[in-house]
Write the structure tokens for this entry.
Amino acid sequence: MSRNLQTSRNIQDSGIRRQTLVSLCMLAGFVIIFGRLFYLQVLQADKMREQAARQHYKILTMDSPRGPIVDRHGKPLALTVERPSVYASPSVISNPRHVAQQLADVLQLSSASLMRRLQTTRSFVWIKRHITPEQAAQIRALALEGVGLLMEPHRQYPQGLLLSHVLGFAGVDSQGLEGLEKQYDAYLRGQAKTAILLKDAHGHAIRPMVVKQRVGPAGYTLQLTIDEMVQYIIEEALEHAMDRTRAKGGVIIVMDPKSGEILGWALRPAFDPNRPLAADPTWRRNRGVTDPYEPGSTLKVLVAAAAIEEGKVEPGTLMYAGDGQMPVSGTIIHDTHKAGWVTFAQAVERSSNIAAVKTALLLKEEGLYHYLKAFGLGERTEIDVPGESAGLLKPPRQWGSRTLASVAIGQEIGVTPIQLITAVAAVANQGWLMRPYVVRAILDAQGTMVWEQSPQVRQRPISGKTARILTTLLVNAVEKGTGKLAAIPGYQVAGKTGTAQKFDLTTGRYSTTRHISSFVGFVPASDPRIIALVIVDEPQGPAWGGRIAAPIFREVAERILQYLKVPPHVHDAPLTVAMAHHEDPVQSSLSKEQ
Amino acid sequence: MKGGGAFFGVGLLMGGVILLGYVWGKVDLVQVGYELAFLSQKKLALERQQAALRLQLSQLMAPESLARAAKRRLGMGPPRPGQLVWVVVPHSAGKETGSIAIARTDDVEGKD
């Protein structure tokens, strides 16, 4: 009995011990679990929250498209479209040789170079960016392991060569590299969009559960002063001129002389901004602002303006232009024809070098320098196009004994095309010198103007009276003088020819075979709508400005005047159909029937 | 005892209905989310297509392209000197005198 009792007590004790042990184990388990929970939920809370967010949220960062560049009427000159780009993840490609071969066939790339890229341990490499939609479809059909396609913004210039030197171009990452694309990059480039979305187990976005969205504005639109049609006219004329003269290069700039707005800007050689790297880098330089040249006789416009403004000469002032030769400090200034006694007006008309030198002698070094500076030479015009040169105008203390005579005929001085046209535009604008500009306004994505450029007067180098007198002389130069081939029937053209010998650095003398032919003029002379500068660099054959550049001026100015609907002068009696009553013919016939 | 059981049963049912409604709403929301995501993708694709068409349009409307097409298909070119006739619209009440230019069509061979 007592043994049974003892046995029963032992069993009971053993059960209690086991219960205690199990309880302790469970307690220990709970302590561990709660300890772990405390560790994860309290001590590691931030880290865990971050990990969970990474699993549940999807962060999307997208570049806003680069803003377009449009002409003054809103016609697109630069646009952004999306193009597919091919990438690969080499770490997941098991047969790189096969993949390289397949991609090489579609993308016309070297199989060996693709192999090198695919044999790395990197998780992402670009194969080729901005491929054609057809190539993308072929790659999609191949369904290659570890190869994918991404849509990327790609800059396109729908008009090809048109205005390429001013527009510049953007790189593969939509960054402005040259021209206005670079100058206005901060405005054109849109801000990146960031969106944080909830995603499911497959990584698909659950759109309504947007946790946070920060959308940056798209790139601004750049509206230019350029007129697409004017630009086309001058590009076409310059292209024909290059073919005709077999010249090394050429420039045509068209400006509104009253505001300083640039209407057209063409250069040759040209490049296609859609394939900028295919062109010689020197062809991409905007020589309208970067390269100073010796302007030759076109500079006589400014010399004449200074002399008239100073009262040194009048149109009827008699000057002795001699027998076509004038010795100056050991050299001889030539005229093409013996002029004898001429009025100042005739001297401008015939572009007499000797008369120009004599006029400059009346002004003296300081006087001529003062006016050339006042017309903006030797300093930047501050046009909103990058890379502008200040040209070359030495102060009188650095002038040699021949410099005054040389400058009077457009030598020993360097001007950029934009400097020259801006200076002569002051004559067309009653003496007011304007700041030239190509960007008219900046608009946001909704088309609201956020910034607008307005015409700016820089200074007034000559009076309105001087400008009117000089305009008359320049009209004579076209109607009776060296610029006859620039004359347009029905319109009064004021202008000046220029034929400059190029300086030969190898011989240290002016070349007798290499010239720059130019013409600068404005029309209609009484109320100018346009001023144009035509420069032809090293034309083959006769290089006279009046023979080479003046007809180009006529061609472009005539077509631009027609396009701008500027009617011809009344003296040339355009056909006028005058109606007694300006009525609608349809309405009129209906009322008659009734 | 019976009343308490019925009350518990109704409560359980109501709780179940509320829970079902909540889950239904959630599922529906996710479904709408997927549809929206799909529509967003479609919108993006259409925007891409619009940009490509805009580019194509500006290429086709470029003066050079128009001039080439006009010459090739219709034999047209810029008017030669003397081919233009200026028609001056006479002054009418409240309107300034304007003028427009039109190209003459009777001298396409340029005999003048």
